[in-house]
Amino acid sequence: MKATGFIGTLVLLALVVTDARSANDVNTSVEIDWSKVRPIEEFDHYWARLPPELQALRRTRLVNRPVTNGFAAFPGQFPYQVVLLPEFLVGTGLCGAVVLTNVYILTAAHCVVQGVGVIATGGTAIMGAYDRSIPEPDQQRIRFSGSGITVHPQYTALTLRNDIATVLLNAPMSYTVRVQPIRLPTLSDTRTFTGMLGTVSGFGRTSDSSLLPSNFVRYASNPIISNSECLTYWTPIYLGAENICMSGASARSPCSGDSGGPLTVNSALGPLQVGLISFGDTAGCTSGIPSVHARITYFLQWILDNSDY
């Protein structure tokens, strides 16, 4: 049965970099008040763009947003995973992101845009985190500015079409065992990746009863399905050629706090990013509805044009 209405509520920068960078830009021990950080899907502006009948789902659905049936990662298992903390006038959000290069990260546009066209004022990106709640020695916490955020020019908040953005950090990160860039497909790669095992990772919620995102990196895997199969669940209003879907079988899915994180497949050279977590079903992450992601091969030229990848 095809899902109805808007079903996209996942439970789910250019600055000159110099050697004389500020300690405020790179600080592995900076304290973050996590009690004031909320998944981006909990902000009023995320829901205000939706029709009233779907806004009514907010209180009944949002509190039950687990990272469902996933597994705890081991330290360094996902060295390209980023904790993204975008700052808005109304508060600080929590999203995922991916290391592209030592100065650029990739995330979902809805993670860094408040409502229609209001870009985050700045924020912090945390690389190398296993436990995000403490300043681990291997973490690199680097600031970014609003001027370093580049949102796809055709991003549409209502339908989350073209849900992709790059962020230029205020200072470069250092590659370590725990911090490494992701590998993207080549421009000549025409595969759809249908049938391959996809893996999503992030710090989203961990159970139906949990009200807080996970402190630790978690991941879940399911097959990537064709867009034609995905369209049996989603209408073409929300799903197009720029998207790639992961099965929601066995209630495995990304959830609130995971948006902007990676969807990867295994390759001979290691993990290959094929998607960017965008949205899922308002019925909840355990609904079995496929999660929808921005398709990397579709946006690859845009990524190359708006980063130094």
UniProtKB/TrEMBL annotation:
GO terms for molecular function: serine-type endopeptidase activity. The keyword Protease applies. It comes from the Eukaryota. SMART domains: Tryp_SPc. Residues 67-308 form the Peptidase S1 domain. Transmembrane segments: none annotated. Keywords: Disulfide bond, Hydrolase, Protease, Serine protease, Signal. One of its GO terms (biological process) is proteolysis. Residues 1-22 form the signal peptide. Belongs to the peptidase S1 family. CLIP subfamily. PANTHER family: GH06673P-RELATED (PTHR24258:SF136), SERINE PROTEASE-RELATED (PTHR24258). This is AGAP005670-PA-like protein. It comes from Anopheles sinensis.
